[in-house]
Specification:
The complex is a heterodimer of chains A (423) and B (165). In chain A, 71% of the residues lie in helices and 1% in strands. With 423 residues, chain A is mostly helical. The termini of chain B are far apart. Classes of the chains: A mainly alpha (423), B mainly alpha (165). At the A-B interface, α5, α6 and α7 of A face α2 and α3 of B.
Chain lengths: 423, 165
């Protein structure tokens, strides 16, 4: 039914690695547009103001305008700066954040023409240590950026960041040891598989303390509020990126968002069941995600209709014609999604076209993962606009006197519980 | 074929960066070159199927030790004039002579053949096999190393802290 060469392409390991690469980069690079929009609108929502709402529907085109503004600004290198390191530093943060994506599994195993695949770029047998190793390099971007700018505020910011990232990296790593004891594996995909089934198989239920330590440390690692002392604007102007402008600043900015995205997706994979829906196997049978796919389409159609209804409402001073066009397009998308879902349900896809069914199941898993990821990404924004900043000595005290002993205690208690066979 | 390309690429880069570590005048540049060198060594470990060791090499050397090096250098913040001019000294000349001797000896011994290494087993370089090795036959050196590190930590605390309690 399908030509040989198409089967060859579909069953090639490289195709799926490349596809995973594309999925990952779309989630992050193009996602940055959505992240900045979400951050600005989220801030506005929490502060009870409209936020950017003029350009495009819900102001989403504003993020593109931001990017254009950044790219067309003058690229200033301060006098006395170390030119070479000044140029390299922004790249380090971004490279590190993007490299971690290589080990993240975006879907479970799925079968295609008798071969098994998974949306994961590199299936390493030490995925978790790879993450620790690569993320420990992120500090160089901040440290070198601050040092090479030849500015006291920058240097102070980067020194703070170095101390902060080293301190919290320890509790981050130790909290992961507790998780590792429970799942009895260091491979991220096996960790997700260990969380199949009931909701109490999820890492957050099995290791709540590890989850709290991991979440806090990952906020500190990403230099986000309440741990953004690196760029505390009331004390340090803008910290390590004071002397950066144009796209070099843009790289730091994007690096921060990619770092947040990676942290959010790791939280989902380690503690919130990855692509799993709790009790999916019990309720929907042996291949739950294949069965769920049409319902996902119906849900997407419903969401599209709700957005269409909202955009088509008349508003003052908003692009009404553009919104109407968008509403029309959304209704079309909703209609076709619902039609596809109906077709999927009507024709017995699972037995008739097994390869399509397994791809649909894979897509469902990716979407479940992305939905969970979206919540944790939103949590970053939520926390940023809700909590005040720590003082520096409080930060260090929290890191060394609270988080580190708690993480060590967590390992001990988890180890005893695992030995006793409770977990 | 790919393995050879990666080996010569990373090996050459590691050697070049190692030279830069001592050739660079600015200590920060030397530190950056050393970090790059650690990274290339990790890549060489990975090529030898010692993946866990490669990750640990990056995590410990590039990610932890070199960060501290870098911070010390940044805090000292040496100006260009304080670094001094490069001089021709006897030590440098002697070093060059020794290097030439090593190169001659190496070229004399080097036959261009690969050493016959034992075949890599299924679990070679995995966390499980390294763990079995460390906590099995190699337990004594491992514990001695940890005692050594503990002694170093205690020494650092004693020097840094004026009032111990």
């Amino acid at each position: 039914m399908i030509p040989e060469w198409v089967q060859d392409i579909l069953t090639s390991k490289w195709t799926w690695a490349a596809l995973a690469l594309v999925v990952a980069y779309v989630l992050t690079l193009v996602g940055i547009v959505v992240y900045t929009w979400l951050e600005r609108r989220g801030a506005a929502f929490i502060q009870r103001r409209p936020g950017p709402n003029r350009r495009g529907p819900y102001g989403i085109v504003q993020a593109v305008a931001d990017a254009v503004k950044l790219a067309t600004k003058e690229d200033v290198v301060p006098a006395g700066a170390n030119k070479w390191l000044h140029a390299v530093a922004p790249m380090i943060g971004m490279t590190v954040a993007l490299t971690i994506i290589a080990v993240i599994p975006f879907s479970g195993d799925f079968e295609l023409f008798g071969q098994t695949f998974r949306l994961q770029i590199a299936d390493m047998n030490f995925g978790f240590i790879f993450i620790l190793a690569i993320s420990s390099l992120a500090v160089y971007g901040v440290a070198l950026g601050g040092w090479s700018s030849n500015n006291k505020y920058s240097l102070l910011g980067s020194l703070r960041s170095g101390a902060q990232m080293i301190s919290y990296e320890i509790s981050l790593g130790l909290s992961l040891v507790g998780v590792l004891l429970i799942y009895n594996t260091v491979k991220l995909d096996e960790m997700v598989i260990a969380q199949t089934g009931a909701i109490w198989h999820w890492g957050v239920v099995q290791a709540p303390m590890a989850f709290l330590i991991f979440l806090t440390s990952s906020y500190a690692e990403a230099n986000r509020v309440p741990f953004d002392l690196v760029e505390a604007d009331s004390e340090l102007v803008a910290g390590f990126h004071t002397e950066y402008s144009s796209l070099r600043f843009g790289l730091f900015y994007m690096g921060e968002y990619v770092h947040m995205a990676v942290s959010a997706i790791l939280t989902v994979i380690l503690f919130f069941g990855g692509w799993h829906i709790p009790w999916a196997e019990e309720i929907f049978g042996s291949a739950p995600y294949v069965t769920l796919f049409p319902w996902l389409l119906f849900g997407a159609a419903l969401v599209c209709l709700v957005i269409a209804w909202d955009t088509s409402r008349p508003r003052r001073r908003v692009h009404t014609r553009g919104n109407l066009l968008l509403a029309f397009l959304l209704v079309c998308v909703a209609g076709s999604a619902a039609a596809l879902g109906g077709l999927y349900l009507a024709g017995d896809v699972q037995t008739e076209i097994p390869w399509l069914a397994s791809i649909c199941g894979m897509l469902t898993q990716v979407i479940v993962l992305v939905l969970k990821f979206a919540f944790f990404f939103w949590l970053f924004i939520w926390v940023r606009w809700t909590l005040p900043r720590f003082r520096y000595d409080q930060l260090m005290k929290l890191g060394w006197k609270v988080m580190l002993p708690l993480a060590l205690l967590n390992i001990g208690v988890t180890g005893v519980l695992v030995l006793l066979g409770v977990l | 074929m790919w393995e050879a390309i990666f080996f010569w690429g990373f090996g050459g880069l590691a050697a070049a960066l190692a030279v830069l570590v001592i050739a660079m005048k600015n200590p920060i540049h030397s530190a950056v070159a050393l970090i790059g060198n650690m990274f290339c060594l990790a890549a060489l470990f990975a090529l030898l199927d010692a993946h866990f060791l490669a990750a640990i090499q990056v995590l410990v050397y590039a990610g932890a030790i070199m960060v501290l090096f870098m911070f010390v250098i940044m805090l000292l913040n040496l100006k260009a004039e304080e670094l001094g001019r490069s001089r021709r000294t006897l030590a440098k000349g002697l070093g060059l002579v020794l290097l030439a001797w090593v190169a001659v000896r190496f070229l004399a011994e080097f036959k261009g053949e690969a050493l016959a290494l034992p075949a890599v087993t299924e679990d070679y370089g995995t966390i499980e096999s390294i763990g079995r090795l460390i906590f099995g036959p190699q337990i004594l050196p491992f514990e001695v190393a940890s005692v050594l590190l503990l002694a170093a930590i205690l020494g650092a605390v004693t020097i840094a802290k004026k009032r111990l309690w």
